[in-house]
Amino acid sequence: MNLILFGPPGVGKGTQAELLRDFYHLHHISTGDMLRAAIKGGTPLGLEAQKFVESGGLVPDTVIIGLVREVLEEDKKAGKGFLLDGFPRTVAQAEALEKLFQDLHIEDVRIVMIEAPEEELITRMLKRGQDSGRVDDSEATIRHRLDVYNEQTAPVRTFYSTHRSIKTVNGLGTKEEVSDRIRKTIA
């Protein structure tokens, strides 16, 4: 099984990714972690990504997709399923990912959309910011992140609704309750 977890900031994708990774023994793929590892390892794609990171720019989709390709090829050879968390973030990334799935003959991909009301997401992220001392989690910053999500990432749902089945799960409740809902949905 291969999973893509999708949803707005603060909905609990990272928490659910950890629980599902452990339950299903999947390779949790975080593009941020992959970028850091590739840069640290000095791989060709890592060196290319480093140029953008050092200049403060966004790493281009071609580099991100290249990194994802390398990891998915390794997982496929090892017979291991994957869990993508927070990727794809744009329709262009989703299109490139679908092409990658075709190229690598990856078929069993399940997409789970975790949803929660926007005011709940804001409350969660404000609390998370207070608990961790993160100053970047002000209400204005959080609202901006949600606006960016609604503008750039929410259209990915529309893209997938025409290409794959999307299972929607209520993100309210304890992390165990949400995890149980996801497992029942993808069973």
Overview of the structural elements:
- Helix content is 63%, strand content 13%.
- It is built from eight helices and five strands; from the N terminus they run E-H-E-H-H-H-E-H-E-H-H-E-H.
- A five-stranded parallel beta sheet has the order 2-3-1-4-5, sandwiched between helices.
What characteristics describe this protein?
about 190 residues, Rossmann fold, five-stranded parallel sheet, 8 helices, globular
Secondary-structure topology with pairs:
Elements: E1 2-6, H1 13-24, E2 27-29, H2 31-41, H3 44-54, H4 61-78, E3 82-85, H5 91-103, E4 109-115, H6 118-132, H7 139-163, E5 166-170, H8 175-186
Parallel strand pairs: 1-3, 1-4, 2-3, 4-5
Helix pairs in contact: 1-8, 2-3, 3-4, 6-7
Q: Number of folding domains?
A: 1
Q: What is the name of the CATH class? A: Alpha Beta
CATH superfamily caption: P-loop containing nucleotide triphosphate hydrolases
Large-scale geometry:
globular
* CATH-assigned fold name: Rossmann fold
What oligomeric assembly is this protein in? single chain
Mean residue pLDDT: 91
First-last Cα distance: 10 Å
Order of helices and strands: EHEHHHEHEHHEH
| Quantity of strands, as a count | 5
Structure at a glance:
By secondary structure, this protein is α/β, with parallel strands linked by helices. Helix content is 63%, strand content 13%. The protein has helices at residues 13-24, 31-41, 44-54, 61-78, 91-103, 118-132, 139-163, 175-186; strands at residues 2-6, 27-29, 82-85, 109-115, 166-170.
